[in-house]
UniProtKB/TrEMBL annotation:
<feature type="binding site">
    <location>
        <position position="196"/>
    </location>
    <ligand>
        <name>Zn(2+)</name>
    </ligand>
</feature>
<protein>
    <recommendedName>
        <fullName>4-deoxy-L-threo-5-hexosulose-uronate ketol-isomerase</fullName>
        <ecNumber>5.3.1.17</ecNumber>
    </recommendedName>
</protein>
<comment type="pathway">
    <text>Glycan metabolism; pectin degradation; 2-dehydro-3-deoxy-D-gluconate from pectin: step 4/5.</text>
</comment>
<feature type="binding site">
    <location>
        <position position="194"/>
    </location>
    <ligand>
        <name>Zn(2+)</name>
    </ligand>
</feature>
<feature type="binding site">
    <location>
        <position position="201"/>
    </location>
    <ligand>
        <name>Zn(2+)</name>
    </ligand>
</feature>
<dbReference type="GO" id="GO:0045490">
    <property type="term" value="P:pectin catabolic process"/>
</dbReference>
<dbReference type="Pfam" id="PF04962">
    <property type="entry name" value="KduI"/>
</dbReference>
<dbReference type="InterPro" id="IPR014710">
    <property type="entry name" value="RmlC-like_jellyroll"/>
</dbReference>
<feature type="binding site">
    <location>
        <position position="243"/>
    </location>
    <ligand>
        <name>Zn(2+)</name>
    </ligand>
</feature>
<keyword id="KW-0479">Metal-binding</keyword>
<comment type="function">
    <text>Catalyzes the isomerization of 5-dehydro-4-deoxy-D-glucuronate to 3-deoxy-D-glycero-2,5-hexodiulosonate.</text>
</comment>
<keyword id="KW-0862">Zinc</keyword>
<dbReference type="GO" id="GO:0008697">
    <property type="term" value="F:4-deoxy-L-threo-5-hexosulose-uronate ketol-isomerase activity"/>
</dbReference>
<dbReference type="InterPro" id="IPR021120">
    <property type="entry name" value="KduI/IolB_isomerase"/>
</dbReference>
<dbReference type="GO" id="GO:0042840">
    <property type="term" value="P:D-glucuronate catabolic process"/>
</dbReference>
<dbReference type="GO" id="GO:0019698">
    <property type="term" value="P:D-galacturonate catabolic process"/>
</dbReference>
<dbReference type="GO" id="GO:0008270">
    <property type="term" value="F:zinc ion binding"/>
</dbReference>
Length: 276
């Protein structure tokens, strides 16, 4: 498990491109037969990827979280971005097709990941946050999620937002998670942009060809920076940073938030004319 530390916005302004990528970009989440994780001290979030092949992968506890087992004091949201697979939570098996999700509550002692076809494996992207209460483990079929259609082709941002884990749906202690799918010929997300003073966010971009990328915008509104993000890479976005992006073609991304507030309306909009 790689460890990343929190950063003050004044320090962020001094970073080179390479330093900024090292602090905020997560490049290698998926490896055959492995689980890779990054622990960020920004709201104690863990971001990970599990890619099981022949053997089932078990999510182990580690000294980094100081627990007897991984979910002793944590909850986790999982979305499969690969071929069909399954997750076993304390003996209960959940089949997940591509873009299906799963919420697993605190106190689940054993979590296992498997693929139906080891030669064409599942890819389980997950985000875990600290938890204080046990909520029920629940599968989230993308066809049954709340879907909101936004934007327009004229604004290059026609997209559908699918809510997986949120207060009016599958409940959690603090984790909020979902997916946004851009229509063909649309490239912008979250513009006009906003800030979340009371929660951080992680963006995970996928369903892009090898030669495509997203220009992910971050930083304070009056001094923005960018990171080039390629397929199946994630970006950590602190609460003081905007989080928006434009791609070389349409793409899909998973957003996950953690903090002291789960309300979607708890944002500070940034007028377009104030961005620099």
């Amino acid at each position: 498990m790689e460890i990343r530390f929190a950063m003050h916005p004044s320090q962020f302004k001094t970073l080179t491109t390479e330093q900024m990528r090292k602090e905020f970009l997560i490049e290698n989440l998926f490896e055959y037969g492995k689980i890779n994780m990054v622990y960020t001290h920004v709201d104690r979030v863990i971001v990970g990827g599990a890619m099981p092949t022949v053997e089932v992968l078990v999510l182990e506890d580690g000294k980094e979280i100081g627990a007897q087992y991984f979910l002793e004091r944590r909850e986790i949201g999982i979305i499969n971005i690969g071929s069909k697979g399954y997750v076993i939570a304390d003996g209960h098996k959940f089949e997940l097709d591509k873009k299906d999700g799963l919420y697993v509550g605190m106190s689940t002692k054993k979590l296992e990941f498997g693929s139906d076809d080891p030669s064409n494996p599942a890819k389980f992207y997950f985000v875990s946050t600290p938890a204080h209460k046990q909520y029920p483990t629940e599968k989230i079929d993308i066809k049954q999620t709340e879907a909101t259609h936004l934007g327009s082709l004229s604004e290059s941002n026609e997209r559908t937002i699918y809510k997986y884990i949120y207060p009016d749906g599958v409940k959690s202690c603090q984790l909020v998670m979902g997916m946004t799918i851009l229509e063909p010929n649309n490239v912008w997300n979250t513009m006009p942009c906003h800030l979340h003073d009371r929660r951080m966010e992680v963006y995970f971009y996928f369903d892009m060809p090898e030669d495509a990328f997203v220009l992910h915008l971050m930083g304070e509104p009056q001094e923005t920076r960018h990171i080039i993000v390629r397929n199946e890479q994630a970006v950590i976005s602190p609460s003081w940073s905007i989080h928006s992006g434009v791609g070389t073609k349409n793409y899909t991304f998973i957003w996950a938030m953690a903090g002291e507030n789960q309300s979607y309306s708890d944002v500070n909009p940034v007028p377009m004319k104030e961005l620099k």
